[in-house]
Here is the input.
Amino acid sequence: MDVQLLTYLFVGGSFALYIGIAIWSRASSTKDFYVAGGGVSPIANGAATAADWMSAASFISMAGIIAFSGYDASVYLMGWTGGYVLLAMLLAPYLRKFGKFTVPDFIGDRYYSNVARTVAVICVIFISFTYVAGQMRGVGIVFARFLEVDVNMGVVIGMAIVFFYAVLGGMKGITYTQVAQYCVLIFAFLVPAVFLSILMTGHVLPQTGFGATVLDAAGNDTGVYLLERLDGIVQDLGFGAYTEGQKSTIDVFFIAAALMCGTAGLPHVIVRFFTVPTVRDARISAGWALLFIALLYTTAPAVGAFARTNLIETVHQTEYQELPGWFYNWENSGLIGWVDKNDDGRVQMSAGAAFKGTPTFAGDRDEVTGSHGQRVVTNEINDNDAEVYIDRDIIVLANPEIGNLPAWVIALVAAGGVAAALSTAAGLLLVISSAVSHDLLKKTLKPDISEKQELLAARLAAVVAILIAGYFGINPPGFVAQVVAFAFGLAAASFFPVILMGIFYKRMNKEGAIAGMAVGLIFTFSYIVYFKFVSPDLNTAENWLFGVSPEGIGTVGMVLNFIVAFAVSRVTAPPPEHIQHIVEDIRVPRGAGGASAH
Here is the structure.
């Protein structure tokens, strides 16, 4: 059975499973729609949390960053995993004890202000749409290659699938769908990693293969370590050593801090801790989620190293006509481009960008081709030796093909990539819809709305959110993991300080919280927009504030939030006495009731 048919079977079968679960677990009340009725088991919630948190950035893009950036990409591993521990240990149990299942609901009640609630809703929308853009882009990339459609059409297909099970099932449908999606994505990530580890190093576990010596074509041990070999390969092509970082220490620190604190402020992950019956179950499910997450995150460095090694050895100095089929397939998807600068018919990889921007081609392959049958790139060509553009988001998806693995493994990876992107997209869209229907409509604008009307409003808000998310997926502001890093920065700058101080500093009042959130969000958002959209040519280390990149600026925004919030709270009236008692009460880890919608 060929790859295409297997892909249709694997992806189509997973879609049928997700839709079936959505129908089986359809939400019939606002509690079902927002927190799955509050009765999910800790193990199931741990798997759902892992799927919700391990987005297309984790599955599709992170190993790609590691493959291309090497040591510098460790900041993503440290930031995202460290952030989850921070969330699970420092914030989640206390938020669960407070009993409000959305971040704006917590902020609105803790800071006794509908203005604070509205500012929090705005922050949720900014963060979630930035984050979901990366997920829809991931869906489009998967479909572009494996279903042989345009990237934009892939985004539209993904929108239709998410629309069905997110709008119909709400959190109840999403939770059980995400359990299935976790099983699909982790199996899809680990199977090719194990295959490649055995083929390249003789080790079954990719984690040990990452630090092992490589085998030659006959299966004999060469005595050369994988990373040593990879260092030599990339340095011969003019790149920096794979095991040495190029980023400044301060930028690494600020990016890691933004990712950590952003994780702890992500609304779609926080809400997952309200789907279990008790605070104790919330802590247990956090432990299960960390275990499930660790399976992927400890494997990703090995996958990145295997992919970079195989990619260079397969493509570099190979005649275009003799390249494997996957190269042409991804070229047709617009995610690979080749310019034959010296007209020798061979693909040369070298440091630097071959041309400006992503590939744009002069017509279809059947209409316009170069002297060696390649798609003709119309971009402005750079004056260097680099000839090939490879989108880093394709690395995990192309990895089985690059490693010449069986067709069923390739199809499985396609299903895993879709599962990773859809699971997080659904969670984010639900957060947006609940922020609009529950926090803005029910709690602020129309408090007398009925439960049936609120549920309808939530579903309509989800529809609008899906349409906007689709637009951002078709017009993404960067590659998947980069876009997601911006979302984490926005979360760190807006939510993390007010949640942390809301739990541990009873003197923090509504004026301080509102001022802090506004300053953190505006500063961080403006910095990212300036360097990424207004003046991208100035996006270099010498122009950055304190040498901090847009990916790490959320840490500066977070510090500003803390300072402004604290300063304003000290010169304004303290919170009411009953609010201070609530703050003291939620730090006692016993006696929490169920999550409340009202």
Q: What stands out?
A: Residues 591-598 have pLDDT under 50 and may be disordered. The longest helix spans residues 151-201. Residues 69 and 242 are 7 Å apart (CA to CA).
